[in-house]
């Protein structure tokens, strides 16, 4: 591995797919010469504008022909990534294709076929690191997308690395995050301390790792609203408007969200010559009415089972705007700056200035707007975008102020239509330092704010090595509980730690991974465990015969009369080798004809032993297994849509179990079959053991190997 690590993320959105390439320093290099502040910081992720490429349409466009998604869509993006990543680093560069709301709207069969084709094509046509398709190629739930966005925004703003410089009061130093795409919208924020305690079960635990190996934890509320993106909201708006129309034979529906005089198809598309006679929308250019008609789409009247709620009856902790300062990306930026800020690069936002600009634009007739577009009055506006911009602006205003509750900043400062809100915002922006309740952003320090950056920050953070692996908790996120939650999600399967509690390399890697330094010890351990398992299952008769054969090998040519103790090579030491009682074996050997053995079990077989009656008070419970391949502390590594369990990865041997296979009270006794634990001549003090008068075993300091299973200790 060279000086740089690389990572590739493909954002498969509803309208297109965009590839991002990132890089960061090798941790050894990053630590050299780093000061204390840099050591306590997250790995520094770098990218360049030319490392990003977007193509249209989205992956979901190939739902009815998934076999074409590779050659017709992914090929161009993979070739772009190959040009950026050095050839010798490609095999160590992870690639992720993470699809969002567009793919979430597909059926399960269509979605799975697309994902399978995507993974197969990526593996066949590139050498990027792709260890597990289910993790690296997947549809991520909206809450995961929102969390990645929250990480990206706070990473670029510096709140992770320098919390003291971003102290908002009340011990709070992070920023809230808002994202709105075409199909869904997300919100993520860390509540104040009071709300954090009150709504602990509603928060997500996020753990990151600094350059020096230390960790930082954050507790974040994140939720997502599917069908609340601008395109899906527009679709719901048009359906509602058609349903509300009382005239069945009407050819026109008035739409206050379209510029006056503009005619479109019923779904808001430009008219063609063949569509001149069908149902049409006729723009009226009444923005106030547009605001009123889009407000019901927030679904604020939905039942709220757990107060408070934001949109669509979704519960959320109360937002303290004194310490929660939000940044908004995607449509929050495009709908507030591309047109209505006239190309200014300021990041400030105030409600009244924005609404005045929207009303001024949307009240113009379509002929005037079309002429301005042709004259390039608005650099980023074309005819198709102009069809939608007024609806988008009304939706953004409703979501921000009536849905989420962002305060309407600067109302009291605006005195009339000549107020230049943009110029004033530019003047004050440097001193505000993102401390307004809401600010729309596109880039921070020349880097685009994208949730894909948050994914790569998480991955790069997880690659930082630690000195004491057993005492270091893993990087990732899950339910807000101490330690490692059952639903904890790791950045990549390549980085999954040992699932038995993170004590070193997993059993799979130790046995099969040629790069693992523990491969040989792990293989030896595995073989020994298999041998022991076979030995326990072969039955007492066969075990006894094997013991005698082993003893014969060790004592070949010797007289057992002269070596009475050595004949019991294992039998005198361990309860599961040889006969049941060492005293019985000596008696049988020295003077067997003088004793009446009665019901004592023969050393040859245990199958003829009498059974306990149902009424016997010393009857045994089924034995408890003494060791297991899993532990109650073992995390379930789960991945999949909506954070639901979709699989468990890996097995492990619980470290520190304290089970000694050579202990009389340990593994062997607990795993004996019930047939081989049937004593005879039970007495009130026998504890379920056989007894013989004069047997030396009665005074033996250890417990007899023939005993009931140990009392459960859990």
TrEMBL record:
One of its GO terms (molecular function) is GDP phosphatase activity. ATP binds at residues 182-186. The chain crosses the membrane at residues 520-539. The keyword Membrane applies. One of its GO terms (cellular component) is membrane. Coiled coil: none annotated. Keywords: ATP-binding, Hydrolase, Membrane, Nucleotide-binding, Transmembrane, Transmembrane helix. InterPro entries: GDA1_CD39_NTPase (IPR000407). Residues 672-714 are annotated as: Disordered. It comes from the Eukaryota. Pfam families: GDA1_CD39. GO terms for biological process: CTP metabolic process; UDP catabolic process. Residues 684-698 have a biased composition (Low complexity). The active site is at 145 (proton acceptor). Belongs to the GDA1/CD39 NTPase family. This is Nucleoside phosphatase family-domain-containing protein.
């Amino acid at each position: 591995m060279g000086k740089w690590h690389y990572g590739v993320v493909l954002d498969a959105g509803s309208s297109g797919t965009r590839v991002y390439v990132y890089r960061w320093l090798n941790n050894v290099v990053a630590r050299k010469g780093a000061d204390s502040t840099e050591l306590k910081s997250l790995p520094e992720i770098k990218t360049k504008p030319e490392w990003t490429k977007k193509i249209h349409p989205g992956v979901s466009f190939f739902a009815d022909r998934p076999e074409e998604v590779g050659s017709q869509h992914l090929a161009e993006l993979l070739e772009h990534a190959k040009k950026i990543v050095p050839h010798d680093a490609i095999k160590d560069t992870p690639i992720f294709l993470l699809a969002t709301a567009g793919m979430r709207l597909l059926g399960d069969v269509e979605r799975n076929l697309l994902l399978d084709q995507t993974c197969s094509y990526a593996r066949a046509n590139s050498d990027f690191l792709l260890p597990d398709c289910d993790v690296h190629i997947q549809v991520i739930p909206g809450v995961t997308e929102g969390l990645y966005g929250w990480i990206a925004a706070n990473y670029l703003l510096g709140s992770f690395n320098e919390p003291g410089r971003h102290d908002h009061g009340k011990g709070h130093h992070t920023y809230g995050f808002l994202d709105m795409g075409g199909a869904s919208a997300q919100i993520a924020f860390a509540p104040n301390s009071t709300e954090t305690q009150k709504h602990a079960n509603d928060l997500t635990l996020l753990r990151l790792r600094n350059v020096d190996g230390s960790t930082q934890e954050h507790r974040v509320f994140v939720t997502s609203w599917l069908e609340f993106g601008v395109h899906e909201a527009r679709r719901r708006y048009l359906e509602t408007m058609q349903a509300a129309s009382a005239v069945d034979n009407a050819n026109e529906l008035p739409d206050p969200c379209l510029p006056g005089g503009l005619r479109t198809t019923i779904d808001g598309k430009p008219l063609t010559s063949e569509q001149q006679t069908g149902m049409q929308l006729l723009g009226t250019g009444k923005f106030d009415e547009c605001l009123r008609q889009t407000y019901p789409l927030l679904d604020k009247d939905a039942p709220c089972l757990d107060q408070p709620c934001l949109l669509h009856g979704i519960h959320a902790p109360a937002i303290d705007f004194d310490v929660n300062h939000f940044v908004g990306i995607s449509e929050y930026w495009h709908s507030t700056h591309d047109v209505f800020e006239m190309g200014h690069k300021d990041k400030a936002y105030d409600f009244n200035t924005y609404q005045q600009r929207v009303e001024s634009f949307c009240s113009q007739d379509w002929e005037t707007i079309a002429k301005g577009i042709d004259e390039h009055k608005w650099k980023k506006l074309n005819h198709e975008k102009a069809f939608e911009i007024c609806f988008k602006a009304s939706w953004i205003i409703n979501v921000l102020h009536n849905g989420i509750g962002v305060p309407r900043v600067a109302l009291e400062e605006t005195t009339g239509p000549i107020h230049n809100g943009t110029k004033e915002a530019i003047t004050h922006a440097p001193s505000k330092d993102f401390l307004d309740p809401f600010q729309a952003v596109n880039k921070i320090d020349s880097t685009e704010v994208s949730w894909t950056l948050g994914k790569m920050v998480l991955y790069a953070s997880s690659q930082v090595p630690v000195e004491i692996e057993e005492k270091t908790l893993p990087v990732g996120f899950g339910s807000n509980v101490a330690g490692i939650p059952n639903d904890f999600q790791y950045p990549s399967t390549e980085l999954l730690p040992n699932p038995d509690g993170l004590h070193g390399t997993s059993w799979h890697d130790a046995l099969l991974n040629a790069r693992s330094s523990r491969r040989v010890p792990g293989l030896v351990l595995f073989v020994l465990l298999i041998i022991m398992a076979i030995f326990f299952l072969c039955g007492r008769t066969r075990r006894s015969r094997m013991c005698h054969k082993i003893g014969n090998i060790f004592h070949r040519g010797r007289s057992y009369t002269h070596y009475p103790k050595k004949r019991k090579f294992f039998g005198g030491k361990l309860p599961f080798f040889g006969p049941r009682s060492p005293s019985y074996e000596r008696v049988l050997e020295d003077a067997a004809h003088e004793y009446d053995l009665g019901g004592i079990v023969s050393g040859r077989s245990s199958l003829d032993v009498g059974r306990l009656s149902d009424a016997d008070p010393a009857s045994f419970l089924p034995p408890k297994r003494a060791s297991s391949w899993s532990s109650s502390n073992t995390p379930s590594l789960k991945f999949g849509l909506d954070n639901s369990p979709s699989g468990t990865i890996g097995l492990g041997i619980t470290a520190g179990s304290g089970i000694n296979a050579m202990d009389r009270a340990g593994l062997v006794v607990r795993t004996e079959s019930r047939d081989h634990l049937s004593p005879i001549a039970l007495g009130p003090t026998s504890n379920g053991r056989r007894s013989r008068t004069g047997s030396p075993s009665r005074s033996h300091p250890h417990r007899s190997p023939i005993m009931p299973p140990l009392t459960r200790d859990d």
